[in-house]
Amino acid sequence: SVSDILSIEDRDLQPVPETDAASDYRFLAAIVANDERMVSIIDMDKLVTGQAASQMQQIAAAPAQAQIAVQ
User: Fold this and answer.
1) Is this model's pTM higher than 0.85 or not?
2) Which of 29, 39, 43, 71 is the most exposed place for a label (fewest CB within 10 A)?
């Protein structure tokens, strides 16, 4: 769930540090230091695979009754 909505300036974006496990963080676009915490900026195109996006589109296009039955 969303806990806060932040306004972030481009100049505040920092690159994601390279690590040995960089593939685990491939969906991160940047990080931001905000007050006393680090905030991750997520690249949704990298987070959601093509197959998952297709499935979400099919669910969204289905009639409302079908969506209720799936839930």
Assistant:
1) no
2) 71
Residues with pLDDT less than 70, the chain: 21-23, 63-71
Alpha-carbon distance values, 10 to 7, 28, 30 (Å): 10, 15, 10
pLDDT reported for residue 65: 54
Q: Which long-range contacts (CB under 8 A, 24 or more apart) does 1-8 make?
A: 6/32, 6/34, 6/39, 8/32, 8/34, 8/39, 8/41
- 64 DSSP assignment: H
14: amino acid identity, one letter: Q
Q: Which of 46, 47, 38 is nearest to 15 (CA)?
A: 38
Residue 23 CA, distance from chain mean position: 15
